[in-house]
What we know:
alpha/beta; Rossmann fold; SIR2/SIRT2 'Small Domain'; six-stranded parallel β-sheet; three-stranded antiparallel β-sheet; binds nicotinamide-adenine-dinucleotide; binds zinc ion
Amino acid sequence: MDDLIKRAAEDLAAAKNVAALTGAGISVESGIPPFRGKGGIWEKFDPMEFAHIDAFMRDPAKVWNVLISEMKEIVDRAKPNDAHKGLAKLEEWGILKTVITQNVDGLHQMAGNTDVIEFHGTFAWQKCMDCDKRCETSKVEMTQIPPRCDCGGILRPECIFFGEMIPQLHLVRSQKVASQCDIMLVVGTSAVVQPASFMPVISKQSGAKVIEINPEKTPLTGTVSNYLIKGKAGHVMKRIIKEVGLLRDL
Ligand code: NAD
Ligand code: ZN
């Protein structure tokens, strides 16, 4: 692993336009469980019963009571970890330009990244289904379920449910970012959810290096990514940032 950390640091220090694609794994060390794998949310909930738009439309109170209230509790408490902070540092150094995230937890912005494409929307905000008025999720009163807007409309998170479309604008911009970067850093994603997992493929086809950080192999490993640094995102990023810092001081 030490060799790969050094290699990643050298690659990043020499790059001019790095993009990152992040997934649920980058927030695991912030206490937010991923969807798949050990301890994943889908071990507890059936996605089709709770995370599909049809399920929400049929019975918003049920989805609020179970999935949304639990996510709200987790996300309200979560703070960026060393991986989010590392990506913010790379932006501060002018190395990283854009983060494309599948996450809805808002932790990249909290860490300081300014150009974050939230591929699947955000859980940090709720929107009234009748008048479109927005309010911060952390300020939503849970006394009434489902919570309602002043106008009486039901609130829904601004993230997309299964069965909903990725906002076209996010998709088009992500494809552009993926095709123009010189390194695509893929952190904590199982790379099985389309079309997000296609972004590293676009980068690779456009001539970029693809670097993965994940404790497990993914479908990108050995096919699309140039190398995988096997480990937890926070731990690995902290070490990479230290090395990039040393190279910058030379
Ligand atoms: P996923 O749940 O499918 O996969 C998680 C990946 O993270 C796995 O490859 C796993 O090996 C890896 N991982 C686990 N612990 C890690 C760690 N400490 N460091 C680095 N990697 C680690 O997640 P996904 O690929 O993002 O795709 C599924 C969907 O999950 C996305 O659409 C996203 O919207 C949603 N989601 C988001 C959050 C969040 O906002 N934090 C949480 C759960 C799910
Ligand atoms: Zn309203």
